[in-house]
Specification:
alpha+beta, 4-stranded antiparallel beta sheet, Neuraminidase, 15 helices, about 25% strand, single chain
């Protein structure tokens, strides 16, 4: 058998197309003429049939057009047909925002799928506030799934600008795109009332449409985000709002607002903010540990920028707890700091609080909820299946030198809006930390206190290494393996199926420990390079930890820091990602969705 080689010339295909293009430009060997809009285009049947399913079928053996000298294409414009023929003969597609509609129509009609794909990529790459509505209509008309999705996302992102400068574009939007936009989970800086008005204006502009379509469109609105005072007027705002389906949704929204304490556990899509839960709220604390601030900072991990809530915290708090449930922020207990008597302007009064405040980001408002059964500071709280648990702590008597440590635990029943007793810790404890793993509450460290102890609050006694666990379905606390380091005012966090213990006060080293619940074992990890305490900390959805501010020792003095550190748990690595607007200590952190 003879040996042989099979070689390929990359230039042959290019040369073949160049040859056909040359023949076309010279009008030589053309065996068919295509006509569109009174313009004739001499072409070659063989090339057309080999490049387009439409022409392959048109020039089939049994069609009347297979031998015709001229074929009219009245559905196409000369510009669109010319661009597609240039593409078939050269591989280059001439396209611009102005010619895109006719070129895409020709590519789709003639079934030239490579040209259709190029048009779709052109749409996706050219999306902005000016083009997104037009491109969404084109993508919907020609069933370009990827381009339609991208255009709808751009409309949602640019809605604020479009409502101001491109309202006519929005009113000309196809109904599928408008429904997709109204179904979006994130529409920055746009209130729901504006979206409701847009939908009603669209119905007026594009009506009449069927009752089914009208109901389907309006059902994508979130009436639970509208203030109760405005909801009652909506049913009379437009005839489309008076249908039984929409009236029932308005009624449910009003019922939601009347639920009071139960709102966080009755959340539905209708009452969920159009925002991603990426913000970190920094509540309480301040640049002076003795005079906490009422301003609440919000940190956006995406842009790494800080902003402030419009509404301030009603109290000045320190040694408090915060958590979020159902899109609401809860601020619990702590020490309320007030100015002293008028005759003692430089003094402050400190009283342990049992108050609970709830912040609603939908309306930027604070509401006082049912108070805890006991006053607590330096305690810990956590959330298990929508229930808030408060454990341990201490409170200050009227005599500033007397502090009472508590072992009690209580939980907030949102269905009834009341606090109930839970099983007490084995002994009074304050300055401890907690975390939740597999719906079990873990409590570690702290200082065991005595009832009615007459000690100075800043006088550190021996910290504990002990770890206790409580399954809220049971009635007792159980011991687990102790930490290798006694910790006080430290932090616990859960990520990737483990519990992490971070440094607190009075620790000579900065070691971090990881707890494996299955093995009931603690392992030391890489220490934090710079020791600090009284910092704020939150675990991100990625599993990484963010640490905000705090205090550290420098040249024998306490210094409040501005650093924001990130701990990558998978890589066991620390790094500073940005800085706070000002030094901050004693803040408490939680994740909460916020409107932009």
């Amino acid at each position: 058998m003879d040996n042989y080689s099979l070689l390929y010339s990359s230039s042959h295909r290019t040369g073949l197309l160049s040859g056909f293009q040359r023949l076309r430009s010279q009008r030589r060997m053309c065996d068919v003429v295509l006509e569109a809009g009174g313009v004739s285009f001499p072409c070659h049947r063989a090339l057309l049939a080999s490049s387009s399913d439409y022409f392959w079928a048109l020039f089939g053996e049994t069609t009347a057009e297979r031998l015709a000298d001229s074929i009219s294409l009245p559905a196409l414009t000369p510009e669109g047909l010319d661009a597609i023929l240039d593409f078939l003969y050269s591989g280059w597609l001439s396209i611009s925002p102005c010619t895109l509609p006719v070129v895409l129509a020709a590519a789709r009609y003639l079934q030239v799928e490579p040209a259709v794909s190029i048009c779709e990529r052109f749409i996706i790459d050219g999306l902005n506030a000016e083009s997104c509505c037009c491109y969404a209509n084109l993508a919907e008309q020609h069933a370009l799934v990827d381009a339609l999705e991208a255009a709808n996302q751009t409309i949602a992102t640019e809605m604020e600008t479009l409502l101001k400068d491109g309202r006519d574009d929005l009113l000309g939007l196809n109904i599928q795109s408008l429904m997709a936009v109204l179904d979006a989970d994130e529409i920055p800086a746009v209130k729901e009332a504006e979206l409701i008005k847009l939908a009603l204006d669209w119905l007026d502009e594009n009506g009449p449409i069927s009752l089914l379509k009208s109901n389907l469109l309006l059902s994508h609105l979130r009436f639970g985000l509208v203030a109760p005072s405005d909801l009652s007027d909506l049913s009379h705002a437009h005839k489309a709002m008076a249908t039984p389906l929409i009236r029932s949704q308005l009624t449910r929204a009003l019922e939601y607002h009347r639920m009071g304490a139960a709102q966080p556990i009755t959340q539905t899509r209708q009452s969920t903010l159009r925002a991603l839960p990426n913000y970190v709220l920094l509540v309480g604390g301040g640049s002076n540990p003795d005079w906490p601030e009422q301003q609440v900072l919000a940190f956006d991990p995406r842009s790494r920028k800080f902003s402030s809530l419009n509404s301030s915290l009603p109290l000045r708090l320190r040694n408090h707890c915060v958590c979020s449930v159902g899109g609401f922020l809860f601020v619990i207990g702590g020490e309320e700091v007030k100015e002293g008597d008028k005759d003692e302007k430089s003094s402050v009064n400190v009283a342990t609080s049992n108050q609970v405040w709830r912040y609603d980001p939908r309306f930027d408002s604070w509401e006082k909820m049912e108070s805890m059964l006991e006053r607590r500071a330096q305690f810990t709280c956590c959330v298990v299946e929508g229930i808030i648990y408060a454990v341990g702590g201490q409170h200050t008597q009227h005599d500033a030198n007397r502090h009472t440590s508590v072992a009690s635990a209580e939980f907030y029943d949102m269905a009834t809006g009341s606090w109930r007793r839970g099983p007490a810790l084995p002994r009074p404890l304050y300055g401890h930390a907690s975390a939740v793993l597999d719906n079990n509450i873990y409590v570690s460290g702290g200082v065991p206190g005595n009832q009615d102890s007459s000690i100075n609050q800043d006088d550190h006694r021996e910290s504990s290494k002990e770890v206790h666990i409580w399954d809220p379905k049971g009635r007792v606390w159980e011991k687990r393996a102790p930490m290798s380091i006694a910790r006080f005012r430290h932090r616990l966090a859960t990520a990737h199926g483990y519990i992490y213990a971070l440094l607190g006060m009075y620790e000579p080293f900065c070691d971090i420990e990881q707890y494996n619940a299955a093995m009931d074992h603690w392992t030391r990890l890489r220490p934090l390079l710079i020791g600090s305490f009284n910092y704020g900390m939150v675990a991100m959805p990625s599993g990484n930890l963010l640490v905000f501010g705090g205090r550290k020792w420098s040249d024998g003095q306490e210094v409040i820091v501005k650093s924001v550190l990130e701990y990558d748990m998978k890589r066991d690595r620390w790094r500073e990602i940005c800085q706070l607007p000002r030094p901050l200590t004693g803040t408490e952190c939680t994740l909460l969705p916020l409107p932009d």
